[in-house]
Structures are given as structure tokens and as C-alpha cells.
Amino acid sequence: MEKNMASWDRAIRVILAIIFIALALQKGGAWWILGIIGIVFIITSVVGFCPLYKIVGFKTAKGS
Length: 64
Description:
Elements lengths: L6 H21 L4 H16 L3 H6 L8
């Protein structure tokens, strides 16, 4: 699995993930959807690969 995310992209996702998860925990209800998105953002940031980027042919990482 080739990395397709740059370090700045990964950092932004982690920041957004923290915000999303905090909102989900604080507000409850249907906000849990943001919490799930936050968890996905953290996983893709750790791995450095975004499946959606692969599907649409987008890449923020430098290289081939």
C-alpha cells in the first residue's frame, strides 16, 4: 500500500479528528457521526493512506 498523504495533510486530519471526536463526546446524539469520521481520520493519518484519494486519483504526497 503506497502512501498518498503528505505530512501536512496528515497533521490537518489529526487536528480535525480531535475536534470531531470532542464534539461527538460533548454533544452526543447524531454528533456520533463526526466521531466516526474523526476515528477514520486518525487511522488514515497513522497509515498515511487514504482510500478515497486512491479512488479519485488524488495524492498530496510527493513522489511517483
